[in-house]
Amino acid sequence: MLAIINGVYRMGRVELEEKPVNIPDGSRVLITFIQSDGNIDLQSRGIDKEAAGELRSQLSMFAEDWDKPEMSVYDNYDLYKVNKI
């Protein structure tokens, strides 16, 4: 059986975002670490400089909302979701 569940590695432990369903205790797992530095390679996704500029322009109308202090909760959304803070 294959089940994919997102999680976060922190202090030597993997914190799952949700509890596995129908997976018996003692089941073997494979962990794949995904490096995320916040940078996205747009060219590898077929987005050139012109298209990126157009996207930036279209999304700029949301900047005011994104910069509100209360939106900082989304900076660590995965942590909040795992810990249900």
Any idea what the radius of gyration is? 18 Å
Structural class: alpha+beta
How many structural domains in the coordinates?
Answer: 1
Summarize the main sheet: 2 strands, antiparallel
Question: Which helices and strands appear, and what pairs or packs with what?
Answer:
Blueprint: E1 7-10, E2 13-16, H1 49-59, H2 63-66, H3 77-83
Antiparallel strand pairs: 1-2
Describe the structure.
0% of the residues are buried. The protein contains 3 helices and 2 strands, in the order E-E-H-H-H. With 85 residues, it is of the alpha+beta class. The protein has one domain. The protein has a two-stranded antiparallel sheet with strand order 1-2.
Notable traits:
single chain; 85 residues; alpha+beta; two-stranded antiparallel sheet; 2 strands; 26% helix; 9% strand; extended
Briefly characterize the structure.
The chain has 85 residues and is α+β, with helices and mostly antiparallel strands. 26% of the residues lie in helices and 9% in strands.
